[in-house]
Structures are given as C-alpha cells and as structure tokens.
Membrane protein (Paenibacillus marchantiophytorum), 362 residues
Amino acid sequence: MLLTWIVIVAVVVISVIIFMNVYPQFGRKPSKVKIQELAGSPQYINGKFQNPVPTMMDTSLKTSLSILRDFSKSSPNRRPASPPGMDVPSFELDRETKVTWFGHSASLLTIDGKTLLLDPMFGRAPSPFPWFGKGRYSGGLPFEIAELPEIDAVLLSHDHYDHLDYGSIMKLKHKVKQFLVPLGVGGHLIRWGIKAESIAEYDWWDELTFEGLKLACTPATHFSGRSLTDRGATLWCSWVIQGQKSKVFFSGDSGYAPHFKEIGNKYGPFDLTLMECGQYDERWSDIHMMPEETVQAHLDVKGKLLIPIHWGAFTLAIHDWNDSVSRAVRAAHESDVAIATPRIGQTIHVQAAEYPQAPWWR
C-alpha cells in the first residue's frame, strides 16, 4: 500500500514538472549559464533578485487564510456592474508626445515619432490559464491587435502575468522591432520565438539611447515570478523615457520606497508619470502602493501630470474596483497635483492645455 502511494506521488510530481516545462505560458527559468551572468547584478543576492530595502510580504498561514477568507466573501463592487465604456484609440503617428491607456498598466506611448508599448497585457485574464474565472472588465479592447502600428519597442517592467502576457506577445511580436526588458525576462521571450538579437536586458540605473530617445532602467520595489519555483529569478523595474520635448516616467509595479526620490533627483522633472495605483492591501503594501502613496511618488519623481494605472481592468485585490482612482483623485486635488483620468482607449496629448478628468468610473 505504501509503495502504491509513493508511486502515485512520484507520478504526480513528475507530471507537474513535465507540464511546467512544456506549457509555454510559464516562460523559461534562467539556465545555469544565465544565472552566472545575472549574479553579477548588485540586485542579485543569495541566488535571486531582491529589493534593497526590507520588503514585508506576510505569507504566514494566518495571513494566507485571512486573504482567502476575504476573497471568498461576496462583494458587488469588486467588478463594475456593467462593462466600462471605451474610446477608439488614435494610432496616428507624429512628433507629439501622446499616450493611450488600455486598462491596467498597458499603454501606447508615441514620442519623437517613435512608438513604444508599455507592459502590453491585452489578454482576457492575468493567469497561466486565462480561460478560467472572470476576465477583463471591458470584455475586450477597443481595437484589434492587428490594427496596432509598427512598434519601435516594447518596454516590460517585470514578468508577472498582468504585465507580460503570452497570448498578447504571440499576436504582436511580428510588429515589434525591439524588446527592452529587465534582467532575465528575455528568457521568456526567447522561449516564445523572439530572436535574441531583438531583446535587450538591463539592470537598475542602466542608461541607453534607442532610436534617438534616452532611456533608463530604474528601480522598483516589487518581485517577480511566473510559477511556484521562480520567485526572484528575474528583475523588475521602472522606466525613464526622454525625448526632445518631453520626459515620461513609467513606474511598473512598486511599493512606496526611497527610490522614487532618487529617480526624481537624477532624472526629474517629468512631464508625465504613469504611476501604479490599484491592487493594493495593507497586507502587501510594501510591494503595491496605496493610492495616496501614488500621488506622493509622483511628487517624489517631480512629475507634472499624473495618470494612475494598474486599475480598471482586473480584480487582483479585495478593494472596490474604482476605489483606487477615487482615492488618488482626492489625494491629487489635496496636494494640487494635475491628474488625468482617461477612459480606456482615450488618447491624451501630453502637452495639451487640458486633460480628461471626468469621473467615468462612478
């Protein structure tokens, strides 16, 4: 009997290992050779990437059970009662700096005649099994991926499913000239058929010139991983994007920490910040900012116009779906911060005299 159970457990374990190695959505863990390369990063400590400041993520049984309990409770406001309205985006390319937000963190930025896609998660749900469960609030997007223009570069902040989506990458990869990613993330893309020469990996504070733009891979306080066994295997980051007439900061995912002031002192001021706002909870506030901290982070980097992102598409936390933007708008007004709240698909001219501020989420 004992031998039978040992065989069953062994078969299950082997099956799981095989599945994780053949199922493409999981991506690819760094090889031993790649790990030796990554180990040269100051952020790579004791076999994985780590934040420079203490980051509390309580994974105790008590906390885990409390999270499961809270998620299991019925709440009518975790999703909108009806799909939010969307605008048809403008893909017209000129020399102006424009941004189109597609929900969550996915955005299209055009600057100095170049087209950049930021964390282009266009899929149904942020999961390795996207056909399960409730998906995107809007049900879809206000465009087809085939309608996107040629993309000069895709910028990725990290490899979580709500930022790096296998299905989206497979549909748009033929349109992309270059992928700019934090250390280690290129392995996922290579597994998905993207040529290594089309991928460039960067560490924090690395600076580069791309098609006339000045970019910098900058810190964030977060973590990475696409399975149970690769936490911290790749780096996470934010991005500085500077053109001839404007400068943009994209926060990626991050808890509030001193790096925002460091970035502001080194690269600020910014004409626009795309700042994480949503999917927060006091139990994991070290890796996701609270809405009021979103506004403070904008001030820290010396931002002019704030657009809250990381909300409006998926339910990944327990708060009401529109709580984050409501609180961020209130905090922005209290601090005299210019804030724009575009609808999904609405294109904003960064140098415009006025910005959309209608509370469409109410």
Notes: The radius of gyration is 20 Å.
